[in-house]
Amino acid sequence: MELLVNGARHQVDASPDRTLLTVLRDELDLTGTKYGCGEGQCGACTVLIAGLPARACQTRAAAINGKAITTIEGLAKNGRLHPLQEAFLDQQAMQCGYCTPGMILSGVALLAKTANPSREEIIGAMQGNVCRCGTYPRIIAAIEAAGRRMKGAAA
Amino acid sequence: MTFEPERYELTAKPLHAFESNWEPDRRDFFKNLGGGIVVAVLLSNSARAQESGGGRGGRGFRQPPAPQEVGAWLHIDTNGGVTAFTGKGEVGQNARTSLSMAVAEELGAPLSSVELVMGDTDRTPFDFGTVGSRTTPDMVPQLRRAAAAARQALIEVAAAKWSVPASELQAENGVVTDGKQSAAFGELARDQQIYKRVASESGVRPATQWTVMGKSTPKVNGRAIVTGQHQYTFDMRLPGMLYGRVLRPETFGAILASLDASTAKQMAGVSVVRDGDFAGVTAPTTSAAASALAALRAEWKNTPQTSARTLFTDIKEPVSASPAIDKALAEAHHKLQRTYPVAYIAHTPLEPRAALARWDGDKLTVWTGTQRPFGVRTELAQAFRIPEENVRVIMPDTGSGYGGKHTGDAALEAARLAKSAGQPVKVTWTRQEEFTWAYFRPAGVIDVRSAVDSKGKLTAWEFHNFNSGNSGMNTYYDVANKRVEFHNTKSPLRQGSYRGLAATANHFAREAHMSELAAQAGIDPFEFRMKNLSDARLKAVLQAAADKFGWGKKHAAAGMGFGIAAGFEKGGYVATCAEVSVQPGREPRILRLTEAFECGAIVNPGHLHTQVEGAMIMGLGGALFEAIDFADGKILNPHLARYRVPRFRDVPPQIDVVLVDRKDLPSAGAGETPIVGVAPAIAGAIHMATGEWRRSLPMMVLSAGGSAQSGGAAF
Predict the structure, then answer these.
(1) Are the Cβ atoms of A81 and B226 closer than 8 angstroms?
(2) Do the chains contact at B430 and A38, CB–CB below 8 Å?
(3) Is any Cβ of chain A less than 8 angstroms from the Cβ of B268?
(4) Which residues 93-122 on chain A approach chain B with CB closer than 8 angstroms?
(5) pLDDT, tens digit, for every residue of A70-96?
(6) What is the pLDDT of residues B121-153, one digit of tens each?
(7) Strand pairing class (B354-360; B425-428)
(8) B371 contacts on A by Cβ (under 8 Å)
(9) Contact B502, B465 (CB under 8 A)
(10) Where residue B711 falls among pLDDT bands split at 50, 70, 90?
(11) Taking CB atoms and an 8 Å limit, are B400 and A98 in contact across chains?
(12) pLDDT tens figures, B29-51
């Protein structure tokens, strides 16, 4: 079957038992999407499917039906980081960094839906993403900063 | 400084012992670094013996020194690139950044020109491990010395070239200059083969003159992290690589009685390996490996195992009488005797254990996320009965550890499977494996007896820790009559290091006890601590935290409470204040945490701040709801859905961090100690809010068969 990932079309082997996570990682070598729990509980494998956040470990590749997939590798455009990637750097919103791709994609999905989200909206949207290093306050600050920047750019 | 590992700092026992044997072979251990300028730092214990041979310029770089003599290397290549070699690793504590800063500072080189090779047993000097908060106190000074010596060597080259006195030259920003002429480091390193050895006596810049260190500096490889380009072990791939899975016993201690692998062996590309009690599969994809593993039919012979129900009696043992303490208690104005049970908890690093192994003949290379690459090399050499020179272990920057990745379990498994497959094999643990077959922070029981006189001074202190470890166990409060003992009892579960080791448990017991004793004596818990402390650094952080928090400035409303705790461990001084709201039938809400931390001269204030903040948030889990439940040799909650970790909603709305910078003192590590004050501060706050003392970790009541559930009314 064909997958549309980060704007490129790929032929992949999608036998029914394969999750999007293993297809992305093992076949397309897009390892920015992380395995953290395999149960949809940690958010490390978050990708965007047609702009909406999805847990790649809980998504069968065969069920995607041609929708566009965005992974962390596809977020920067022509070497220019997404405002939320910039904000993660500005706020130093990472320690070991393993949760970071999933955090950023969950945050990007939130910002696409809700410009300038409140702290409570951020917590609600990000509750399914775990950072074991405890960088949550920085991630909240990064999403707030990116929200302000994106709203400023749009105005 | 010699590092004395505490009991659990070392390792849990290896998971596997293989029966097979291979012939040993030898090879050269080191690779040549090339030309330029090389400086090796001799460890202080070997410095004297090496002094006569050290410090020479010239063409010395032929045979690098034996690894145990040298703490770190530094190499300036002919393009001006600077590479420092250290056996320490990056597990999210931002050592790659702080160590790069140390080199840039003393060398006078731009930070961007500095590269760090870390945790590679073939390329970096021996290192005990990234443990015990030792990276900053041990490796920062070593790299500073190496860089300072390299800077001097560059200046001497320029001085000779220009025929000017070295004292008139300066090295800054990658260039040596005398004000009239200048030369870049790479130009000076060209055509040189300078090899210097430095000992601990070499001079470095005092903290008051730092220009790179002491300033907030972002993570040097941050861009690779936010773009998903950084490859953790979990992400690595080699040509022809297979995916390995290991058959896990039904219960702890089970013996593999029989194995029927006939179905699995018929699957395309699948191989099955059996070696004693070890069995595993290799397959061309992750999913094929999972299918093959599921197709194995095993019978296990189980042995009796204990359960969490009886844990706190199982790990206790009788203690001899303490007549002196008894006497002090009998005479005391106030006395208190309490017991503090502490559950096993799981480190839950977000990157589970992973390893990629490749055999080239009888030489083995393993990439693995471990805090002790040299320890894992030894484990591998022993397991396969080959010389250590035949084993290379490389630690990529790893998806955290918190003391949980000291062993080489996944490395042994990948290497064993790769040996049979004749191809590289990657083993990545599932979350469930991580929750079951890794090791835990030790559970423990802590018994405390204490007494105070009519003036509020401590007169007796007796503290017995059963099983959880001795880190941070001694009290820093002034008390003449004390007995503090660790009882090394038998743990039913595999256990090992943790962030702060046993200091989390010992600080909880001591500080919660101090608060309860203060309440009994009718003294404010902050005043009670200050009254019984002499240590100026500890008093300073207590005062700093209390000032920032506004301790004593306002009264708690109904259902609200404040708590305070202090601590000292691994060279760091900490004080924590908590503000908590408890509504009947609801979880306690941590409204505010304030922490003051002092660890000498601050290397990177921004990262120190995030490290303290992160430790506080991690500490909330162990304080309130993290607990491993087990029965009959099985973990009952080996899933994130059943083992609650702190999430966004658990973060207190207000966290204040006060960093006390002591430029007059050597820098200590900060990855562990900031965690220890959180639980006891919350215990004090819960008491003020409810009148009740919570003396167990975790403090929230656990639901049947598992840890506290997200959103549950568990209090």
Answers:
(1) yes
(2) yes
(3) no
(4) 94-101, 104, 119, 122
(5) 999 999 999 999 999 999 999 999 999
(6) 999 999 999 999 999 999 999 999 999 999 999
(7) antiparallel
(8) none
(9) yes
(10) very low
(11) yes
(12) 234 556 788 888 887 654 333 33
Instruction: Tell me the domain boundaries of chain A.
Output: 2-74, 83-154
pLDDT by residue (tens digit) across B324-346? 999 999 999 999 999 999 999 99
Q: Using 50, 70 and 90 to split pLDDT, how confident is the model at B702? A: low
Higher-confidence residue of B66 and B503: namely: B503
Angle subtended at Cα A119 by Cα A114 and Cα A120, rounded to the nearest 5 degrees? 85
Read off φ and ψ for residue B522, nearest 5 degrees: 70, 30
Q: Is B654 in CB contact (< 8 Å) with chain A?
A: no
- The CA distance from B460 to B482, in Å, is 6
Round to whole Å and give the CA distance between B539 and B574. Answer: 10
B645/A130 Cβ within 8 A: yes
Nearest CB neighbour to A76, from listed B227, B402, B607: B227
B665 has pLDDT over 60 = yes
Domain A83-154 falls under CATH 1.10.150.120: yes
> Given an 8 Å threshold on Cβ–Cβ distance, is B229 in contact with A89?
no
pLDDT, position B201:
58
Distance CA A36, CA A99 (A): 8
- Asked which of A7-21, B61-75, B232-246 is least confident by mean pLDDT, the reply is B61-75
Establish if B646 touches chain A: CB-CB under 8 angstroms. Answer: yes
Q: Does the beta-carbon distance from A137 to B651 stay under 8 Å?
A: yes
State the ipTM, two decimals.
Answer: 0.98
Altogether, the residues listed in chain B come to a count of 715
pLDDT value for B22? 28
Token couple for B138: 């041990």
Q: How many percent of chain B have pLDDT more than 90? A: 83
Closest CA to B229 of A89, A31, A95: A31
Q: Which of B219, B232, B350 sits opposite A130 (nearest CB)?
A: B350
Domains A2-74 and A83-154 agree in fold: no
pLDDT value of residue B191: 83
Fold of A2-74: Ubiquitin-like (UB roll) (3.10.20)
Domains in chain B with CATH codes: 31-220 (3.30.365.10), 233-303+353-428 (3.30.365.10), 323-328+439-690 (3.30.365.10)
Cα dihedral B93, B96, B98, B102 in deg (nearest 10) = 150
Q: Which residues 46-65 on chain A approach chain B with CB closer than 8 angstroms?
A: none
Q: What is the DSSP letter of B320?
A: -
Q: Is B545 helix (H, G, I), strand (E, B) or coil?
A: helix
Question: What's the per-residue H, E or C state across B375-404?
Answer: HHHHHHHHHHCCCHHHEEEECCCCCCCCCC
